[in-house]
């Protein structure tokens, strides 16, 4: 057995603190380290998804190339076109369905939703964002989904990020929340449409994930 993989497994577990749930809004939480015990099962599946539908930089309807690269898995994937943002059953690069959502990813998302008070989460879309140092995500609402009954479940991997959690108006004050490898943020209910974004990622190399941050966002889109 590769001694490094065993080392990683133990270091992930050693890092894991007793589940800490931080409330960041009326129906929003950060579950610190929640994903760590899942990662040995999640990362190989994620790698397989990305081998099928690799990261790409999408161009917004306004003509800007997004600094985060993205991919998707699940029945629906989030895409940009000149017309706007939408969910599509096909990966536009390949004109093929997105890779299926691996059961272990779905399970993690459902468990985390439930730990944040949202039972019966049924995600059909997992957006995968990759941020290299300097990449960011400007303030936006997640509002391309058909309805907003289901929460958004967001898993952070790799380099830390400063997550901006705003209000219902773009101009509302934002809270700055540091998100680390293995943290899961969940927002839903009255907080479902709150503006959020990610500040530019600081340079660094994560011992497990390398010089990048990967974020998985699960939603019920269709
Ligand atoms: C997103 O809002 O789609 C991504 C959020 C994150 O990367 O933490
Ligand atoms: Fe978002």
From TrEMBL:
The keyword Oxidoreductase applies. InterPro entries: Alkb (IPR004574), AlkB-like (IPR027450), AlkB-like_sf (IPR037151), Oxoglu/Fe-dep_dioxygenase_dom (IPR005123). It comes from the Bacteria. SUPFAM superfamilies: Clavaminate synthase-like (SSF51197). PROSITE patterns: FE2OG_OXY. The keyword Iron applies. Residues 122-222 form the Fe2OG dioxygenase domain. It holds the Pfam family 2OG-FeII_Oxy_2. Its cofactor is Fe(2+). It is an enzyme of class 1 (oxidoreductase). GO terms for molecular function: broad specificity oxidative DNA demethylase activity. This is DNA oxidative demethylase AlkB.
């Amino acid at each position: 057995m590769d001694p490094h993989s065993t080392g990683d497994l133990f270091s992930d577990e050693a890092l894991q603190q007793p589940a800490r749930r931080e409330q960041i809004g009326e129906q929003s939480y950060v579950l610190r380290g929640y994903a760590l015990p899942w990662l040995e099962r999640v990362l190989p599946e994620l790698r397989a998804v990305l081998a099928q539908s690799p990261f790409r930089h999408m161009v917004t309807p306004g003509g800007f190339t997004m600094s985060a690269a993205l991919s998707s898995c699940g029945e629906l994937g989030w895409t940009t076109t000149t017309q706007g943002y939408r969910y599509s059953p096909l990966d536009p690069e390949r004109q093929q369905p997105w890779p299926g959502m691996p059961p272990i990813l779905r399970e993690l998302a459902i468990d985390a939703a439930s730990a944040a008070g949202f039972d019966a989460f049924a995600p059909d879309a997992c957006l995968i964002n990759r941020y290299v140092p300097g990449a960011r995500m400007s303030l936006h609402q997640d509002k391309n989904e058909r309805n907003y009954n289901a929460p958004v479940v967001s898993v952070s991997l790799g380099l830390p990020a400063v997550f901006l959690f705003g209000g219902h108006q773009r101009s509302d004050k934002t809270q700055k929340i540091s998100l680390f490898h293995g943290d899961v943020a969940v927002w839903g209910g009255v907080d479902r449409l709150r503006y959020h974004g990610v500040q530019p990622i600081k340079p660094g190399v994560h011992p497990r994930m390398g010089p990048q941050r990967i974020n998985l966002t699960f939603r019920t889109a269709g």
